[in-house]
């Protein structure tokens, strides 16, 4: 009889222990499920919430648009926890550094026309992350008071050629628009004309001086650019579409490993480029042209648009 009670006691204790284990296991499962749901929620908020490699480098060329976009992107990335260094380079170095994975990404790819040669060289190693501006036309540009309307009007134009010493005032030699302009000289048979490299700042300074004196000048230019708001200019028609017709796309381009290396940064850039447009860029360009430092212009823009900053950073780094 005592053995029977002992057996029943042991059986009851075993059942009780199993019940406790089952209850406890249910609580653990529920908690784990809750944690999984929370993780999934963060992933829904930002595909790739982890910062990953948190030291980034953005190479840029000192073109007006790049000077506007680069600090804006930099400051948003710093807001979510990245350390971002920017490096001024020429166009060729900008592309090669990203393609070689020595830099993280760029904000100044012009495709399909202006940077076609770079894309053909590096396309296996890079990818487009997002688009800043859908159509950015490029062309030979003159003050509106000049009596030329097409690149074709330059051929054999002795009066104009002698007035400007047969010179087109260019920007940095590695720029895609310089390559396009050299091609235009060949395609339109402008044997007497030459393209003089300088820098964007030097070209714009000379353009402004010539306009103040109402003198002729030819330069390669593009939109969006503050020069078209501040000066009365016209782009010359390009029947052969050497400069790409309606215009290039201005895009963010990164090394193909960037999404895996720095997933949150990849996500942030995609969010920014979904909203960024020509109007936004013009606002930054005008502020910079009016004397603001590019970084200050970017800071002011983000301060004035907190909803955008929240949209671009929400769920990142949590």
Give the helix/strand layout.
Blueprint: H1 2-45, E1 55-60, H2 64-79, E2 83-88, H3 91-99, E3 105-111, H4 116-122, E4 126-136, E5 138-143, H5 158-163, E6 167-169, H6 176-187, E7 194-196, H7 200-212, E8 219-222, H8 227-230, E9 233-235, E10 248-255, H9 258-261, H10 263-275, H11 278-289, H12 294-304, H13 306-313
Parallel strand pairs: 1-2, 6-7
Antiparallel strand pairs: 3-10, 4-10, 5-8, 5-9
Domain ABC-type glycine betaine transport system substrate-binding: 55-303
GO molecular function: amine transmembrane transporter activity; carnitine transmembrane transporter activity
Signal peptide: 1-21
Give the low-confidence spans.
Answer: 1-48
Q: From the helix content, strand content and strand pairing, which structural class follows?
A: alpha/beta
| Widest β-sheet, arrangement of strands | 3-10-4
Could you say how many structural domains there are in total?
2
């Amino acid at each position: 009889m005592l053995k029977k009670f002992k057996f029943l006691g042991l059986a009851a204790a075993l059942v009780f222990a199993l019940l406790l284990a089952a209850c406890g296991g249910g609580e653990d499962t529920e908690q784990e499920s809750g944690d999984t749901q929370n993780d999934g929620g963060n992933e829904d908020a930002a595909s790739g919430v982890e910062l990953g490699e948190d030291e980034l480098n953005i190479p840029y060329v000192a073109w007006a648009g790049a000077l506007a976009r680069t600090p804006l992107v930099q400051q948003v990335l710093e807001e979510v926890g990245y350390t971002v260094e920017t490096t001024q380079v020429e166009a060729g170095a900008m592309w090669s550094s990203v393609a070689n994975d020595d830099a993280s990404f760029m904000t100044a790819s012009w495709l399909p026309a202006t940077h076609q040669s770079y894309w053909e060289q590096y396309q296996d190693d890079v990818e487009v992350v997002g688009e800043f501006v859908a159509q950015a036309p490029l062309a030979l540009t003159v003050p509106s008071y000049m009596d030329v309307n097409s690149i074709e009007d330059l051929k054999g134009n002795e009066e104009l050629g002698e007035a400007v010493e047969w010179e087109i005032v260019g920007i940095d030699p590695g720029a895609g628009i310089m390559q396009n302009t050299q091609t235009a000289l060949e395609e339109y048979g402008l044997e007497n004309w030459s393209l003089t490299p300088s820098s964007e700042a030097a070209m714009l300074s000379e353009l402004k001086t010539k306009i103040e004196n109402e003198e002729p000048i030819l330069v390669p230019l593009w939109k969006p650019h503050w020069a078209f708001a501040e000066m009365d200019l016209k782009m010359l028609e390009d029947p052969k579409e050497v400069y790409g017709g309606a215009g290039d796309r201005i895009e963010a381009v990164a090394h193909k490993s960037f999404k895996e290396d720095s997933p949150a940064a990849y996500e942030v850039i995609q969010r920014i480029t979904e909203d960024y447009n020509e109007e936004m860029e013009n606002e930054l360009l005008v502020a910079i042209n009016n004397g603001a430092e590019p970084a200050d212009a970017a800071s002011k823009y983000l301060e004035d648009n907190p909803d955008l900053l929240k949209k671009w950073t929400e769920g990142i780094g949590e």
